[in-house]
Design brief:
Blueprint lengths: L12 E2 L7 E6 L4 E7 L2 E8 L6 E12 L2 E8 L15 E8 L4 E9 L5 E12 L2
Antiparallel strand pairs: 1-5, 2-3, 2-9, 3-4, 4-5, 5-6, 6-7, 7-8, 8-9
């Protein structure tokens, strides 16, 4: 390569590509969530599982990692282990890679456990556009 200077890039490009979209995630674990993306936020709503009928809005970051492939992440300062559960302020990180070419996703997240504590999950999903 000699004296050629290579342009250095730090990470993937942040994008607003998902803003205005609503995607339903059907997880292998049996959980189903709708995620509605707006400028700077994601609102998730439980469709199946312990969060049915409960929703929360968080600040999000979306990075484009490939053609129609995105890394989505957010931090929940406060959340509930179920729609009826006590609100918890433990801090929970959610990170998802969604491939909209193949309509699949992989998520990594901490979730609160009834009675205290939290567990770490890696869950796979098929996805569909809704709304």
């Amino acid at each position: 390569m000699g004296n050629q200077k290579m342009k250095k890039t730090f990470g993937h490009t942040e994008t607003k590509d998902l803003d205005g979209k609503k995607i339903r995630y059907h997880y292998k674990s049996g959980l189903t969530y709708d995620q509605e993306y707006k400028e700077g936020t994601v609102t998730w709503t439980g469709i199946e599982g312990p969060h049915v009928g409960y929703s929360q809005t968080e600040k999000k970051i979306v990075n484009k990692v490939g053609d129609n492939i995105y890394f989505i992440t957010w931090f929940e300062n406060e959340t509930k282990p179920s729609a009826q559960g006590e609100s918890r302020k433990d801090g929970f990180v959610v990170s998802i890679v969604v491939d909209l070419n193949n309509m699949i996703a992989t998520a990594s997240y901490n979730e609160p456990i009834e009675g205290g504590g939290q567990k770490w999950m890696v869950d796979k999903a098929w996805v569909e556009y809704v709304g």
